[in-house]
Amino acid sequence: MNIANLRVRTRLFAGFGILCAFLLVIVLFSTAMLARINQDTSDIANDRMPKIAASHAVLTEVNTISIALRNMMLNADPADRAAQTADIQKARAAIDATLAELQQTIASVEGKALMSTSLDYNAKAVTAQDALLRHISAGELDQAAAFLKDQYRPLLGEYRKALNAQITLQSSLATKAVAEAGRTYDNTVRTMVALAVVILVLAGLIAWRITISITRPVARALAIAETVAAGDLTSQIEVNTTDELGQMLSALKKMNESLVATVSTVRTGTDLIASASSQVAAGSLDLSSRTEQQASALEETASSMEELTSTVKQNAENARQASTLADAASTVAERGGHVISQVVGTMDAINDSSARITDIIGVIDGIAFQTNILALNAAVEAARAGEQGRGFAVVASEVRNLAQRSAAAAKDIKGLIADSSSKVGDGSRLVGEAGDTMQEIVDSIRRVTDIMGEISAASREQSAGIEQINQAVNQMDQVTQQNAALVEETSAAADAMRSQAATLATTVAVFRTGGDAGRVQPAAAAAAAAAKAPRLSRPAVPRTSAKPQASANVQAGAGKAQLASAGADGWEEF
Is the same domain home to 195 and 284? Predict the structure, then answer.
């Protein structure tokens, strides 16, 4: 089986698995050796050393009892003897407990034999100690000294020999355990060093083999990637393995082939984009020029509509003022009609009073005539009376003169009143005719007022309509200005797209696909297409100044005609 065909993951798993197996062997071996060393150390620390310490503790307690017995022999104080007796009992209890514990822990045959001897000597020592205590209690110090020298001291010596033999045995066993632990350590170190050397050699061989099986294909892939990065797509990629690296080389091969097709397509597309963007830029510039001309026409139309709006507003204001004046004249005429009616009534009343005065003057004239007759009769009677009637004749003469003067005055007054009545009649007739004329004037002014109100209302409606038209034209002007700006932005975007297409073509030209011979550079073609595109500057949009009010209608008509022309031409082109 060819290792190069194994998956990289499998190779890495196998290499690390072998290393882990070797490591596991080392760990198991070292664990076993360490367990042996731990066992020996545990025996020393937990078995041998406690036994040695227990034996020394028994010796110490035996010495304590011997010292207490000696003190009791030297000091006869009962209190001191009681204290020494208590120490002896305490030491005996400690010895019994230690020996019992030591007997349970000793496992070797030699140790058990020495333990049995120690127990026998301990029992004998206790018996001897009791006998010695009896002698001391009885005051038999000489017998106690002799017993101590002849029996207790030799027994105590044998007892100590047995305990020291146990200490020597446990010490020798501990020394053997230490030596065994040392040998185990040395063997472990040598074995682990040998295994480490073997494992390092094998690990190096495995790492070298896996490394070269990975780095060589990676180096080939890196060289191919650098070739592609340099723009050379003519590399021939061979795939000899089926692992991930072989799959990567296969993918690089497919990528190289796809890049060749993509670059060829992009080159063709950049040429088309460069040509199309140049045409779009030229069309956008042309459309921008026409849109700006249309915006200029709408600007002038908006100005004319503003002038027409101003004129119509002024006409509406004049009509409103005329309507107000007509209303005021109608009111004045109505008041004049009422006054004339009153004058006609007054003239009729004057005519009636003149007629009554004429009648009264006629009565006065009749009275004057009768008075004159009576005065004449009185004068005749006075003449008949002679001297007696002379005074009466004078009075009658005066009465007659007065009657004549009254008749003459009445006649003059009657003539004047007749003339005044005639003139009053003429005045009444003329006043009646004036009243009729004034009524006709009031009716005419009322009709004029109604007409002026209708004219004012029509002017307001016309002003509102023209205001709406003006707003619509202004909105159209704003929209056209926005369209012009948008067209300029479109033209700029087309120009930018043309530049980007040229840049993209230059960038793609870096790649070599093997079919570049005789190919025209797309950047040069784009530059030539850009040179053909017309460069149109945006014309200034004039704002028509306000015209005099006298020419408002003419300007409004011209504005409507120009708006219609602009709507027919510019919007159709747009």
Answer: no
Say if residue 171 is in the same domain as residue 263.
no
> How far is residue 508's CA from residue 526's CA, in Å, rounded to a whole number?
14
The verdict on residue 9 lying in a domain is yes
Model pLDDT for residues 24-47, shown as the tens digit of each residue: 888 888 788 778 777 767 667 666
Least Cα distance to 566 among 308, 309, 301, 287 occurs for 301
Contact in structure between 409 and 377 (CB atoms under 8 Å): no
Name the token pair of 38: 């731990």
**Residue 83 half-sphere exposure, CB side, CA atoms within 13 Å?**
7
> Any idea what the CATH number is for the domain that residue 170 is in?
1.20.120.1730
Q: Which two tokens stand for residue 424?
A: 């009053």
Number of domains making up the chain:
2
541, 296 Cβ separation under 8 angstroms: yes
Residues 430 and 500 in one domain: yes
Residue 227 belongs to a domain: no
pLDDT tens digits for range 65-108: 888 888 888 887 888 888 988 998 999 899 888 888 888 888 77
Question: Is it the case that residue 561 has pLDDT exceeding 70?
Answer: no
Residues with Cβ within 8 Å of residue 374, at least 6 apart in sequence = 399
Q: What is the CA radius of gyration of the chain?
A: 79
CA distance 64 to 70: 10
Shared domain for 217 and 330, answered yes or no, is: no
Would residue 241 count as lying in a domain?
no
Chain centroid to Cα 276, Å, comes to 39
Encode burial over 89-115: b for 16+ CB neighbours within 10 A, e otherwise.
eebbeebeebbeebeeebeeeebeebb
pTM over 0.90: no
Distance (Å, rounded) from C-alpha 534 to C-alpha 284? 10
Residue range 7-16: average pLDDT? 71
Range of the domain at 79: 3-222
By C-alpha distance, which of 107, 121, 9, 15 is closest to 58? 121
Rounded-to-integer distance, Cα 550 and Cα 455, Å: 19
